[in-house]
Amino acid sequence: MPDLVRAAYSALMWLAQPLLLRKLRRRGRDEPGYLAAIPERFGRYPRPIDSLVPYSTMDPLGQFVWVHAVSLGETRAAAVLLARLRARLPGMRLLLTHSTATGRAEGEKLLTPGDVQVWLPWDTPGAVARFLRQFRPAVGVLMETEVWPNLVEACRARGVPLVLANARLNARSLQRALRLALLARPAYRGLAAVYAQTAADADRLRALGAPVAGVFGNLKFDATPDAELLAQGRAWRAAAGRPVVLLASSREGEEALWLQALQNLQGRAGGAAALAGVQWLVVPRHPQRFDEVAALLRSSGLTVSRRSAWAAAPEPAQVWLGDSLGEMPRYYGMADVVLLGGSFGEFGGQNLIEAAACGCPVVLGPHTFNFSEAAEQACEAQAAQRVADMAVGLREALAWLVDTDALAQRRTRALAFATAHRGAAEATADAIAALLWQGRAGR
């Protein structure tokens, strides 16, 4: 029965390719990166890999270490892991794959001579087979959530150990997977190992048959913010001469919630005075929304200065718009308080760990199911505080600005929280290296 189900799934994936291709081209109008190397999405490459990049004579494996990081967040987590893997495997050749343009752009920074970066092909048997024949990886590492039935089966059949690292699975995703259990269970069972972020993630993954081999924590705790960007952000905040409140990694509809909360607060007694002394900073999560958010802010009567237009420093405006990629440490350095995007709409929250590592206390909305344990731990450590909605969150952020001593304590607690949970990168790198050498010894 599972084979029949996977065959039906494969047929649907094959039939859906024209629709997927149309979606890709539509997204490419806003993000040209999606239009790069489209044949790779089908597992088609210009020439054999040996003619693209000669094998390194220093490579102890003779094959690629393949890491798949679907988008921006996973790629940043992969960066932490890769630094440890390269230390354990001198001369390692990396095959780095992605599914989104932002992930691929960020991943370019991680490449060294001899490495290769391509799109992960769509999950059809033919595309996956061509991908594996082309690159012949020694081991595959999927970051966080990316488990594809045909990919897992093809790796199993070819003897490529495939692991899920920094693995997470929230309750909603578990229920969706259980509704497709005939497809999902064989895929999770086919993995060589799973390294979970939390005990709760491990329990949910085991419910799908995943071979959980360790609970190592979240790799994102091991990321170190760029010191130069962080320092420049702090210098810009000091030059502003007033406190800065950051709406970080905002998602669709959350800027409108923030604007409505601002308007409501202005109508309350003392509200206008409290708002007048604040510098606002908004950083949307996705670059294709930069223009849309700028237009929304201006249509609400606010003056806007976009990061892309700055020369040496931010230009005066009621709202600074962070319309750039790879600069979150700079934005967190500019901020006194962070309203965490993705947590006020039903998106599950964005990465609060990066904010904490930059010493930024965080106000969380009610929706943090993507980072549930980290969110709870941050609140317990008083590095963050959960609120019911954007209106309450805005009032809480403003209250923190008034009590400067308490705000300084929250900054200290945020840094302590981020530091206390490190160690996942070392444990994960050790486990992957051991698996790789074990597999090589058995050949």
From TrEMBL:
Pathway: Bacterial outer membrane biogenesis; LPS core biosynthesis. It is an enzyme of class 2 (transferase). Keywords: Cell membrane, Lipopolysaccharide biosynthesis, Membrane, Transferase. Its EC number is 2.4.99.12. It is found in: Cell membrane. It comes from the Bacteria. Residues 38-223 form the 3-deoxy-D-manno-octulosonic-acid transferase N-terminal domain. It catalyses: lipid IVA (E. coli) + CMP-3-deoxy-beta-D-manno-octulosonate = alpha-Kdo-(2->6)-lipid IVA (E. coli) + CMP + H(+). One of its GO terms (molecular function) is transferase activity. Belongs to the glycosyltransferase group 1 family. PANTHER family: 3-DEOXY-D-MANNO-OCTULOSONIC ACID TRANSFERASE, MITOCHONDRIAL-RELATED, 3-DEOXY-MANNO-OCTULOSONATE CYTIDYLYLTRANSFERASE. Involved in lipopolysaccharide (LPS) biosynthesis. Catalyzes the transfer of 3-deoxy-D-manno-octulosonate (Kdo) residue(s) from CMP-Kdo to lipid IV(A), the tetraacyldisaccharide-1,4'-bisphosphate precursor of lipid A. This is 3-deoxy-D-manno-octulosonic acid transferase. It comes from Acidovorax lacteus. The gene is waaA.
